[in-house]
UniProtKB/TrEMBL annotation:
Residues 84-160 form the 2Fe-2S ferredoxin-type domain. Residues 1-11 have a biased composition (Basic and acidic residues). CDD domains: fer2. PANTHER family: OXIDOREDUCTASE, IRON-SULPHUR BINDING SUBUNIT-RELATED-RELATED. It comes from Microcoleus asticus IPMA8. SUPFAM superfamilies: 2Fe-2S ferredoxin-like, CO dehydrogenase ISP C-domain like. This is Xanthine dehydrogenase YagT iron-sulfur-binding subunit. Residues 1-20 are annotated as: Disordered. The gene is yagT. InterPro entries: 2Fe-2S-bd, 2Fe-2S-bd_dom_sf, 2Fe-2S_ferredoxin-like_sf, 2Fe-2S_ferredoxin-type, 2Fe2S_fd_BS, Aldehyde_Oxdr_Iron-Sulfur, Beta-grasp_dom_sf. Pfam families: Fer2 (PF00111), Fer2_2 (PF01799). Keywords: Iron, Metal-binding, Oxidoreductase.
Length: 281
């Protein structure tokens, strides 16, 4: 192998094989060899792909504005794959669904039944936003197959109020300011409602002191409430209000509301003081 041949092999890249003899000569004359050549070819390819993608998008946009011809024939929408029929009782009314056997209860509630009160946070059992109550026990609906709930009773946040009367736990969350953005709140409230039943049953938790003395209708300490609610994450950090709300409903001991909506007079005073402060700046 002569020197020229060796130099050529060393400088060659996969992309070089795409070049014509003239293009290779031109790059050699311009002194674009080795790493510089590979960089140059890479940049050229990226620019070409960018231009191609831009044209593709422009065409797609243009096509999307065209109306379909009157005699156009459309392919039928794909049916449900692996379809299974499930009969559920959701918030008191029987619902017959046909879903993919792999559908999570969360998706069946939100996508099939339009019950969007139940929220999807992590979709992998980490945050508790999707908590609903199935046959009296709280479950993570993102980790529960809809098909496994055949014949069961499902309660979501939409099913807790009695007409215009909020569930006591919903009212307590408002009273104790147990939420800010509200995204985790449906899951928190469903979890808290099921927790009341667990306390009634005398179910133990990780911080229960004596597992041998199972006491029913136990008044939960704040530590117990925090532990039992630890699967429900609140990104806004509304935990003090959440614990206060659950404590009040669980113990039945009413505490004073620590906030109120400002009256017209209070708003007027606040605006007046704000005006004075602005004037002194
Ligand atoms: S969405 Fe189910 S646990 Fe987060
Ligand atoms: S209120 Fe915002 S995440 Fe809990």
């Amino acid at each position: 192998m002569d020197d020229n041949q060796q130099r050529k092999d060393f400088n060659s890249t996969e992309s070089d094989s795409q070049l014509s003899a003239d293009e290779e000569t031109l790059l050699d004359q311009l002194g674009i060899v080795g790493a510089a050549r590979r960089k140059f070819l890479g940049q050229s390819m990226a620019a070409l792909l960018g231009t191609f993608a831009f044209h593709l998008l422009a065409k797609e946009e243009a096509f999307s504005t065209l109306a379909a011809a009157p005699d156009a024939v459309f392919a039928p929408a794909p049916g449900v794959e692996n379809a299974v029929k499930v009969l559920l009782k959701i918030n008191g009314s029987a619902q017959r669904l046909e879903v993919d056997s792999r559908t999570a209860l969360l998706d069946a509630l939100r996508e099939t039944l339009g019950l969007t009160g139940t929220k999807k946070g992590c979709d992998q059992g980490q945050c508790g936003a999707c908590t609903v109550i199935v046959d009296g026990r709280r479950v993570l609906s993102c980790l529960t197959l809809a098909a496994s709930c055949e014949g069961k009773e499902v309660t979501t946040i939409e099913g807790l109020a009695d007409g215009d009367n909020l569930h006591p736990m919903q009212a307590a969350f408002i009273k104790h300011d147990g939420f800010q953005c509200g995204y985790c709140t449906p899951g928190q409230i469903c979890s808290a409602v099921a927790l009341l039943q667990e306390a009634k049953n005398g179910d133990a938790s990780h911080v229960t002191n004596n597992l041998r003395t199972s006491t029913q209708n136990v008044a939960l300490s704040d530590e117990e409430i925090r532990e039992r609610m630890s699967g429900n994450i609140c990104r806004c950090g509304a935990y003090p209000g959440i614990v206060a709300a659950i404590r009040e409903v669980q113990s039945g001991r009413e505490t004073a509301q620590a906030w109120h909506f400002a009256s017209d007079e209070e708003i007027a005073v606040a605006l007046n003081e704000e005006g004075k402060a602005d004037a002194t700046v």
